[in-house]
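Notes from the 1:1 (GR / supervisor)

We went over the backlog. Supervisor wanted to see one worked example end to end before approving the batch request, so GR pasted a single chain during the call. The sequence is below; no edits were made to it. Supervisor asked that the structure be written out right there so they could see what the output format looks like.
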Amino acid sequence: YSHGSEELKETYLPRFLTGEWFGTMCLTEAHSGTDLGLIRTSAKPVGDSYNLNGQKIFISCGEHDMSENIIHLVLARLPDAPKGVKGISLFIVPKFLVNDDGTLGARNKVKCVSIEEKMGVHGSATCVMSFENAEGYLVGEPHDGLAAMFSMMNTERIAVGLQGLGQSEIAYQNGLAYAKDRIQGRDLKEPRNPDGEADPLIVHPDVRRMLMRSKSLIDAGRMLACWTALAIDKSEKDPDEKVRKETGDLVELMTPIVKALLTDYGVEITYDMLQVHGGHGYIREYGMEQFSRDVRIASIWEGTNGIQALDLAGRKMPQHMGRLLRRFFHPALDFIEQNKEDADMKEFVVPFSKALKGLQKTTLYMAQKGLGNPYEIGAAATDYLRQFGLVAMGYMWLLMLKVAFSKREKNDYYEHKIILARFFFERILPETLSRAITISSGSKTMMSLPDDGFNSNSQFSGVV
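Structure output shown during the call:
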């Protein structure tokens, strides 16, 4: 839609919209995962089209019979392509060629040669796709394929964040139902179910800790995803050019945070909810083991979370002299200024203000250290993303609290929100302190261990 010719749009987009045709993204090769500059798939011009040759791996839904046609978006190199990512072009390669009248023609020379045996997500065929003089069509300009593909990848990364959020939610709902139903042990103060043999699991503090942590993170994560999605809409549709630019900056900044934070928490929450089930979570009957297998891919695909952290700390943080950062910091600081004297909000605004100042200090520290030593950015990136993400969630809770306090008399829903927010600010937001301390330790120790020092061996030195 953004980069293709009018002819390509007219040929392919209507069938995508009706669901008659499906699509794939063909980026990864056996030797080229995160480093796409290493891809070897080639594209040779032949008349108005191109012949593509090469093999792609990890292609979700690369082959199936759920649609009439499968349209592959393929990254490949033209004969005159420069080395690295600046030599990558983007092509459309349909499973079936399309005739001039829109009907399907001959089978193209692209085929699935293998289906991966995976840990989870068994409903999706993950394929090895082989292109053997397959006919393809250039999308956008030559050697500009990576930029074209990433115009879609950024929204895909937010979608994967939502995958982590959705799997958190279904795991939480199952964990909550089990905690209310399962009778085990007695309340530490007094029986809640005096006529029964035991009390439900939900009375126990450690079970409540896991449930409240999960729910407070899910609620903040949902708000963060919606807030970012609204910024996407404004960046594309707002009539004010200044608003479009500023919200576009915000989306650029928040994309790696939404993807990595919500999928990391998706894994953590799912495993906590399996823990609530105890041994029953480990067997298939309750379905928790499947959730645990399925959610694990979310922090890997569409760019591993380590790459998201490097994107945030190495690219987004210094970009345009910190302009992207200001799109978050400025409204957060304005909120603090406007609500610091609010009697209801004060207990939340004060710790948030400290956490925000801590994030600003960490950002400045990394910017200064990173100029002289890029290892400082690499060593700090994952902790920085988590620190930033927690502060962003704190801001989301403040926005929710403004509504909750104004409506708390209406029903218990808003009162419950306030209690959950209090849990977040007391027990989750303080993690920003430990992340900042970890970052301040620098990269020296991390980079000092020789490669051989990582070997898994031990020496018995005798009895002391």
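Supervisor's comment: The chain has three domains: 6-142, 148-303, 315-442.
Batch request approved.
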